[in-house]
Amino acid sequence: MGSATSELPAQRTPLADAAETGLKIVVVGGFGAGKTTLVRSVSEIRPLNTEEVMTQAGQGVDETAGVERKTTTTVAFDFGRISLNQRMVLYLFGAPGQERFWFLWDRLFSGTLGAIVLVDTRRMEDSWYAIDRLEHLKTPFVVAINRFDSDEPQFSLDEIRQALALKDHVPMVDCDARVRSSGKEVLITLVDHLYALALSQEGTS
Amino acid sequence: MSRKPVDIGDPDRLYTVTGGRSEADDAFDLVTLIVSECEPTAGMQSEHTRILELCRHPTALVEVSAELKLPITVVRILLGDLHAMGKVSARHPRAAESVATLPETALLQEVLHGLRNL
């Protein structure tokens, strides 16, 4: 296929015909934390990008205006896919963590298994809002520290836990989002955590 | 012929695609898998044709959106129409019998198993 002249997307890899249930995991983090990189490293398809056009009342968006009006905002996000078996397919969504995208979150997070907060230690404050929001929504999550080559400060996980005011029960893991096996470990850490939570709930009910 | 059904930057044209509606059917989750139940027919709205072609194999709503380069809300409306006409079926998350009856722990075990086998 001539890549220079053709705009056609790469051949799609279809799901198995028996695929019957889609599951969701959301990856959140600040700009440049490596969300897309992580999604790409574990996804079976080239990450796709789509967008949601949100129409909302003006309140809280432009409070200085003092006028009721509707605002249209377009929020783009990436996603990838992992076929777990013939029946189950896991979708990974990369969501911007900034506060102004809160309205996308509720939609992305509804029915999600859990979330991965991807942290760039050079900009830890970018994760505060995401963590706050996840706790509020009671969405289980793990924190993955993306250790870039240039990660000079080399904070320990304990130091980062303190800086993020993370509770003890929230698992933390180092990763290199570019490496497939590392991304896979992050996913397994999350699902292990979810499994432990579900097990303790089944025990009490 | 232009491949882009609409210019997504222009809300007026989105209204054209959806017949003037902007309220979407929330029954379709981002990961609801859509499956075509028939072949496209001549004279069908071009977006409907594209969806029916795309969903010959199960395809999540969010993938339909990405492939058609249309916002999620618009795709929800289009899918709602096709579903109402019986032209597509929808496999909602965890609605399948094999999953719905599964305890959360068993479901997660399957997920773990799948991930470890990657």
UniProtKB/TrEMBL annotation, chain A:
Gene Ontology MF terms: ATP binding; GTP binding; hydrolase activity
Keywords tagged on the record: ATP-binding, GTP-binding, Hydrolase, Nucleotide-binding
SUPFAM superfamilies, alphabetized: P-loop containing nucleoside triphosphate hydrolases
Family the entry assigns: Belongs to the GPN-loop GTPase family.
Protein name listed in UniProt: ATP-binding protein
Organism of this sequence: Streptomyces aurantiacus
From TrEMBL, chain B:
InterPro entries from the UniProt entry: DUF742
Pfam families according to UniProt: DUF742
Superkingdom of source: Bacteria
Protein name, per record: DUF742 domain-containing protein
